[in-house]
Design a protein that fits this description.
The longest helix is centred in the first third of the chain and has 30 residues. The protein is globular and about 50 Å long. With 385 residues, it is of the alpha+beta class. The strands form four sheets. The protein has an eight-stranded mixed β-sheet with strand order 6-7-8-10-14-13-12-11. It has a five-stranded mixed β-sheet with strand order 2-3-4-5-9, with no helix packed on it. The chain is 20% helix and 33% strand. It comes from Sphaerisporangium rhizosphaerae. Keywords: Membrane, Signal, Transmembrane, Transmembrane helix. This is WD40 repeat domain-containing protein.
Length: 385
C-alpha cells in the first residue's frame, strides 16, 4: 500500500520541481539580461505593439527584434508543448497540448484562430512533449511527427513512442492514421522534450532534458516491428525544452528555458539567441525560409513570438559562410556523426558541459529546488514505507 502511495506522489512532486525551478530561473535570467528588451516584455503582457510583416513564411521583423506573432485563442490549447510550421499550408502552424489532453493536435493560423482539430488514430498521449514537420525524402510528402517522450521519473516508462502522420491536405477536423515507432535509449531511459528531423536525410533526433543533456540519433531506417535504439551523438544545453532543424539542413537549434543555441553541427556552436521572457518556454521552430525562429509557451492564451536570427545563423551563412556555401561542410551533422562514432565523440568532448549561457547562480538555484523536491519524496517514502 505504501509503495502505491509513493508512486502516486512522486510524479506530482517531480513535475512540481520542474515546473517551479524552470520558470523561476528563466524569469531571473531574462530579468538580468540586457538583450531582452522592454518592448518584448510589454508585448508579453498584452500591450499594443506594431506587428510588422513576418509570419511563418519568413520576412524577418523590420526592427530586428522579437515580436509577438499571435496568441492562441482556442481555450482547448492550454498547454501548448510542441510547435511546427506547415511545409505546405501558408501561414499555418501546428501545436499540441502536454500530457492529459489526448492524442489531438491543432492547425492554427497566424491570427491565433484554430483552423482544424485532428485526432491521431490509435495513439496514446502519456506525455506528448514535442513535434516536428518534415518532407519525407523518399516520397516527397510532408509529414508530422508527435513525440510521446516525456518522462519526469527518468525511467518510468519501458519505452517511448513517436507517431508519424501524413500532413492533412485539407484543413478540416478529421481523424488521421499514424505509424507508431517505439524507442529506447542505449544508455538508459531519460526525460526528453525535443525532437528534430533532418530535412535531407529524414533522420530523427531526440534531445534530452537534463542538467547534462544529449542529442540522440534514431536509426537511419525506423522499424515498426521492434523497438528502435537511440544513440547519443552530441551534448545538449542544460534542460533543453525543444529543438528543430533549419529548412535547408544547414543548422539546428536547441531551446532551453533561458535562450536558444544554434549549431552548425554537434559541438559546433554558431551563436546563442536571446529569447523573449515567457512563463515556461516549451517550443521552437524555424520559419519556412529559415530566417527566423518561432517560440511558444504553455498557458491559456499563450503567445507565439517570431525571433529574427542573427546574420551568422542565416541560411548559407550557417553552412560555413558566404565563400563556402557551395562547398561540403567540414563539420559533422548529427546524421553523419551517428555513423562515425569517433568523430562524434571528439565533438562531444569539445562541448560537453554546455550550459546554454546559463549563469552559475541560476544553476545553483535550480539544483536547490530539485534537491528540495527529492528530499520531500524521501520523507514521504519513509513515513509510508
Amino acid at each position: 500500500m505504501g509503495s502505491r502511495r509513493v508512486a502516486a506522489v512522486v510524479p506530482v512532486l517531480a513535475a512540481f520541481g520542474m515546473s517551479v525551478a524552470g520558470p523561476v530561473a528563466a524569469s531571473a535570467a531574462t530579468t538580468g539580461t540586457a538583450s531582452t528588451s522592454t518592448a518584448t516584455d510589454t508585448a508579453e503582457h498584452g500591450a499594443a505593439r506594431p506587428r510588422g510583416t513576418g509570419g511563418t513564411g519568413g520576412d524577418r521583423p523590420e526592427d530586428g527584434r522579437p515580436r509577438l506573432l499571435f496568441r492562441f485563442k482556442d481555450p482547448r490549447i492550454g498547454e501548448s508543448s510542441g510547435l511546427a510550421v506547415s511545409p505546405t499550408h501558408k501561414n499555418v502552424v501546428y501545436t499540441h497540448n502536454d500530457s492529459g489532453a489526448g492524442p489531438q493536435f491543432y492547425a492554427v493560423g497566424t491570427d491565433g484562430r484554430t483552423l482544424a482539430t485532428f485526432t491521431v488514430a490509435g495513439a496514446a498521449a502519456r506525455d506528448w512533449e514535442a513535434m516536428a514537420a518534415s518532407v519525407d525524402p523518399a516520397t516527397g510528402r510532408s509529414v508530422l511527427w508527435f513525440a510521446d517522450i516525456g518522462d519526469n521519473l527518468n525511467g518510468g516508462w519501458p519505452d517511448y513512442s513517436i507517431y508519424k502522420v501524413e500532413e492533412p491536405k485539407v484543413l478540416r477536423d478529421a481523424t488521421l492514421p499514424a505509424t507508431r515507432y517505439r524507442f529506447r535509449y542505449k544508455d538508459g531511459n531519460r526525460n526528453a522534450e525535443g525532437i528534430m528531423v533532418h530535412p535531407t536525410t529524414g533522420r530523427l533526433y531526440v534531445v534530452s532534458k537534463e542538467f547534462a543533456g544529449s542529442v540522440y540519433a534514431a536509426p537511419a531506417k525506423l522499424r515498426t516491428d521492434r523497438v528502435n535504439i537511440l544513440r547519443r551523438v552530441a551534448p545538449a544545453p542544460i534542460m533543453a525544452t525543444d529543438a528543430a532543424y533549419a529548412p535547408d539542413g544547414s543548422s539546428f537549434v536547441i531551446r532551453t528555458y533561458f535562450s536558444a543555441s544554434v549549431y552548425r553541427a554537434p559541438g559546433d556552436l554558431i551563436t546563442r539567441v536571446s529569447m523573449p521572457s515567457l512563463q515556461q518556454a516549451e517550443s521552437i521552430a524555424y520559419t519556412r525560409d529559415g530566417r527566423s525562429l518561432l517560440t511558444g509557451t504553455e498557458g491559456a492564451g499563450s503567445p507565439v513570438y517570431q525571433v529574427p536570427l542573427p546574420a551568422a545563423a542565416l541560411p548559407g551563412r550557417a553552412a560555413g559562410g558566404p565563400a563556402r556555401t557551395a562547398s561540403p561542410r567540414p563539420s559533422v551533422t548529427p546524421s553523419e556523426a551517428a555513423t562515425a562514432p569517433d568523430v562524434a565523440a571528439s565533438h562531444a568532448a569539445a562541448s560537453d558541459g554546455d550550459d546554454g549561457g546559463v549563469p552559475t547562480e541560476l544553476i545553483v538555484l535550480w539544483l536547490g529546488v530539485a534537491l528540495g523536491a527529492t528530499g520531500i519524496i524521501a520523507v514521504i517514502a519513509r513515513r509510508v514505507g
